[in-house]
Amino acid sequence: MTEQGLKELRDKLDKIDNQLLELINERMELVHQVGVVKAQSGGAIYRPEREKAIINRLVSLNKGGRLNKKAIEALFLEIFAISRNIELPENIAYLGPEGSFTHQAAEARFGAMSSYISIGSIKGVFREVSTKKAKFGVIPIENSSNGIVSDTINCLSSYNLKIIAEVILDIHHTFASTCDKVNDIKKIYSKDIAFDQCHNFLENFGLDEIEHIPVESTTKAAKLALSEPNSAAICSHVGAKLYNLPILFENIEDIDNNRTRFFIISDFDNAPSGNDKTSILVKLPNTPGTLVDFLTEFDQEGINLTKIKSHIVEGVSIFFIDFDGHRNDENIKKIFDKHGKNIKFLGSYVKEIDDI
Ligand SMILES: C=C(O[C@@H]1C=C(C(=O)O)C=C[C@H]1O)C(=O)O
What does this protein do (predicted)? Predict the structure, then answer.
């Protein structure tokens, strides 16, 4: 391509950017007006079901262009996040530290312009949202290799907050160190579950015999590995970058679909989107057949169960259950009417995935 050809293309791009800027500003003006209506009526700013409907509509409209679904989603989620900040700037508390996978999940949904507060414990995140220091909280609920996160279930049981969205993140670990040679590494820092998830890698490189030091987070592991000679960290790409720790190997996890599901919690209920999931906690009498009877009712009402996990909270056995549909659906209402006293409703939210 000639210099002239390149200049012409760039001139065209500049024109399109000018139009985009004008259109986005026009959009933000309307968003501001929506914000004023919401402020008058006390309506929730974040409407995940509306955002999902917009993305679905745009994806189905998009025939033949170069943008795929993932690109449309990434573009518009960022626009929505900026929109919400124009309606009302809001804080997001996440399970830290900075650079944690939960931080990544939070940024995937709330974009670059939101204000984030890193909190050291899951309970702390619930507290921030309950006391209204943050409008939203982001916490992990389960990982495909390590199962359910007990602290999150305990807090969902004891706090009166709602799950308003789920976020699924592919979890990749990196092996990072200031050492050039793997043989020079004498100790490895990481979070306990990350060691478990990278067992094959450690064995293949003869790193399973050296000292493994579990610390609270993979970000802290990166920080420690930077300051100590002959050490390494198993951490996220973002964590290594945060401390400028050289990455020796990427994607060292044993299974390639290592995923974590996160919940976004807040203080309001979502309207139905047409493709929702509902989560509940159920406490049933400890007598034979009660669980089977309870689950049979879902079958009779044609409700598709997607997850059931038993869990002990303060010595009492409870069940964490996910199923398709919204709390306002007629068949789901029937279950709540009948078993309301045994059920704690945790939230109905846009379904991102069947199961992890
Ligand atoms: C503008 C609104 O508020 C938020 C921003 C949206 C947007 O930018 O389109 C959509 C849903 C809400 O999360 C709205 O509710 O319509």
Answer: Catalyzes the Claisen rearrangement of chorismate to prephenate and the decarboxylation/dehydration of prephenate to phenylpyruvate.
Predicted local confidence at residue 354, as pLDDT: 77
Q: How deeply is 285 buried, as exposed, middle or buried, from its count of CB atoms within 10 A (0-12, 13-18, 19+)?
A: exposed
Measured N-to-C along each axis, helices 69-87 and 3-41 cross at an angle, to the nearest 10 degrees, of 50
CATH number of the domain encompassing residue 199? 3.40.190.10
pLDDT digit string, tens, across residues 219-255: 999 999 999 999 999 999 889 999 999 999 999 999 8
ipTM of the complex: 0.96
pTM here is 0.86
Which among 172, 171, 210 is positioned nearest to 188, based on CA atoms? 210
Q: How many domains is the chain partitioned into structurally?
A: 3
Q: What is the mean pLDDT of the segment spanning 296-321?
A: 91
Which residue, among 328, 342, 331, has the nearest Cα to 280 in the 3D structure?
Answer: 342
10 Å CB burial of residue 9 (0-12, 13-18, 19+) is exposed
Closest ligand 1 atom, residue 87 Cα:
3
How much distance in Å is there from the Cα of 356 to the middle of ligand 1?
28
Mean pLDDT of the chain, nearest integer? 93
Last residue of some domain: 58, 87, 116? 87
Instruction: Say if residue 244 is in the same domain as residue 279.
Output: no
The tokens describing 84, both together, are 């919400």
Q: Is residue 189 part of a domain?
A: yes
Question: Distance from the CA of 77 to the center of ligand 1, in angstroms?
Answer: 10
**What single-letter amino acid sits at 292?**
V
CATH number of 35's domain: 1.20.59.10
